[in-house]
Amino acid sequence: MEKIGKYEFIAEPFHCDFSGRLCLGHLGNDLLNAADFHSTDRGFGMKYLMTIHRSWVLSRLSIEMTEMPSQYERFTVETWVESAMRFFTQRNFQIAESNGKVYGYGRSVWAMIDTQTRQPADIFAINDGTINQWIETDKPCPIEKGDRVKMDHNAELVRTIDVYYHDIDINGHVNSIKYIEHVIDLWDISWYREHRIKRFDIAYVAETHQGDKLSFYREQTGEQTYCVRLVKTDQNTLQDTEVCRCKILFTSHLIQRPQ
Amino acid sequence: MEKIGKYEFIAEPFHCDFSGRLCLGHLGNDLLNAADFHSTDRGFGMKYLMTIHRSWVLSRLSIEMTEMPSQYERFTVETWVESAMRFFTQRNFQIAESNGKVYGYGRSVWAMIDTQTRQPADIFAINDGTINQWIETDKPCPIEKGDRVKMDHNAELVRTIDVYYHDIDINGHVNSIKYIEHVIDLWDISWYREHRIKRFDIAYVAETHQGDKLSFYREQTGEQTYCVRLVKTDQNTLQDTEVCRCKILFTSHLIQRPQ
After folding, report:
1. What is the predicted pLDDT for the residue at A100?
2. Nearest CA in chain B to A192
3. Domain check: are B185 and B137 in the same one?
4. What percent of chain A shows pLDDT beyond 70?
5. Nearest chain B alpha carbon to A16
6. Cβ of A77 under 8 Å from any chain B Cβ?
7. Beta-strand relationship, A88-97 and A5-10
8. Is the Cβ of B161 closer than 8 Å to some Cβ of chain A?
9. How far apart are CA B53 and CA B111, in angstroms?
10. Candidates B17, B29, B187; nearest CB to A168
11. Mean local confidence (pLDDT), B141-155
């Protein structure tokens, strides 16, 4: 089996936005699926980990795209493990047209936890360090690693939402992709008529549960760059906890869809 | 080519809810995809219709399930046209396990519109009434047709939300499935720990656009039956318009997931 896994997806029409391009959140979901297929085929996937009370936890995700697939288009996601340490592994992605033209790249950092203690677990303990057989260092991933998102205390509270049924996945907390979608929703369609997302970085800090309120603090940090801090408020204690930070780089360079 | 189309889907892990079962909205999306594949293969799909300024518009959708696929499970959707009239067509669905056990059924009613005038268009005018070759009347769909949802004026306003970027699809208005998801979100996880949706009916009346506010009026009409009326408020005129009505039948009979 190859170190790099390659999977085909389709930009389903109802996963595309008003402009007919795949929504970034749905692309993110496809990347997570590709990661799951790749790790399952190689003996360290979620389904197996569940049986030994372990789970992968997404710690960071960065997606940088020069163009998004159009509706009905088939595209491929290649994914591979760039490095593995005891408590973290780096997994990369390449998103391309079926004919090979590259649309963009992704980088992600994953931790492993013990699902009973919720504490970090040793990645190398899985099947005698099987992940080490699959490290791929030759394949380039020519986008920068996700930096720490720096924000000051001047970020403005722009929205507070309730966490509902659809936000929660089988792990019992808000799904990683849902945060991305809620952040993207902070801008409206008139904005997206003039801008597209060139790069999206997210770093996950804490888990959010149903009943929590999520508040979004936004700060413009560059001409086309915004940072957003998500803070949950516990419904009982009213205590605030930061749950994740995002950096969004927009571009006004829109690419016309072929007719 | 067969009159009945059969397509395989997978209950993707992040399309499942806290209980590990596929969310009804994602199943609905798969049904719409199956309808699109089936009609495209037979010469009356959306992609072709776009070129002649026509579009299918979903008018009603009913889904009745005895069980929902579990995460990672592959399942099939069969779909066929039960009848076609000049302005409406009825399309049915059967959802089954790969080994054949039927999970449930769907019924839908579609209209065709002229995308320039937004007026109803003649379905039989498409390729000399090609749809008539594909009518399948022998395959049973043993669930009731969606009745008119009757509601009085005592329904209680239970939530008002803003329509955001992710609600809008390429048609420029709120996606049919998003309404279903917002309605399902009216109940919380503690409710869904004790109940599952046995049947969901939705009848679409008007379109909603970004900037509109959507209000949800709910009424309990039976022991386990609720009706919900969605009303949009135009942000400029503040005028209220009904956009759709739903009927949700719950059951307390939960089916344990195989371990």
Report:
1. 85
2. B165
3. no
4. 98
5. B169
6. no
7. unpaired
8. no
9. 14
10. B17
11. 89
**Residue B165 is nearest to which of A14, A172, A185, comparing CB atoms?**
A185
User: What is the structure's pLDDT at B86?
Assistant: 93
From its phi and psi, is residue B72 left (phi > 0), alpha (psi between -120 and 50) or beta? Answer: left
Whole-number percent of chain B with pLDDT over 70: 98
Q: Does A189 touch chain B (CB under 8 A)?
A: yes
Nearest residue in chain A measured CA to CA from B176:
A14
pLDDT of residue A149: 87
Look at A201 and B170; give whichever has higher pLDDT: A201
Mean pLDDT of B237-251: 96
pLDDT digits (tens, 9 = 90+) for A127-138: 889 899 999 999
pLDDT at B85: 94
Residue A150, pLDDT score: 87
State whether A89 and A178 are in the same domain: no
Compute how many other C-beta atoms are within 10 angstroms of the C-beta atom of residue B237.
Answer: 8
One domain for residues B25 and B131: yes
Same domain, A152 and A259: yes
Q: What CATH code is carried by the domain that includes residue B169?
A: 3.10.129.10
Asked whether the beta carbons of residue A210 and residue B192 sit closer than 8 angstroms, the reply is: no
Clarify whether residues B28 and B117 are in a common domain: yes
* pTM beyond cutoff 0.80: yes
Q: How far is B104 from chain A (nearest CA, A)?
A: 22
Q: State whether A169 and B29 contact (CB < 8 Å).
A: no
The answer to whether B192 faces chain A, any CB pair under 8 Å, is yes
The domain boundary, picked from A131, A146, A161, lies at: A146
Give CB contacts under 8 A, 24+ apart, made by A90-97: A91/A35, A92/A139, A92/A141, A93/A31, A93/A34, A93/A35, A93/A63, A93/A141, A94/A139, A94/A141, A95/A27, A95/A31, A95/A65, A95/A69, A97/A69, A97/A73
Look up residue B111 and give its amino acid. Answer: A
Q: What is the pLDDT of residue A18?
A: 95
Cβ distance A166 to B185 less than 8 Å, yes or no, reads: yes
Judge if A3 and A108 occupy the same domain. yes
Residues A139 and A159 placed together within one structural domain of the fold: no
Helix (H, G, I), strand (E, B) or coil at A217: strand
Per-residue confidence (pLDDT) for residue B235, from 0 to 100: 84
The domain total for chain A is 2
Same domain, A115 and A176: no
> In which domain, by residue range, is B42 found?
1-143
Mean pLDDT of chain B: 94
pLDDT of residue B259: 45
Q: How many CA atoms, within 13 angstroms, populate the side-chain half-sphere of residue A216? A: 21
CB–CB of A165 and B192 under 8 A? yes
User: Cβ of A259 under 8 Å from any chain B Cβ?
Assistant: no
pLDDT of residue B120: 94
A18: nearest CB among B32, B72, B170: B170
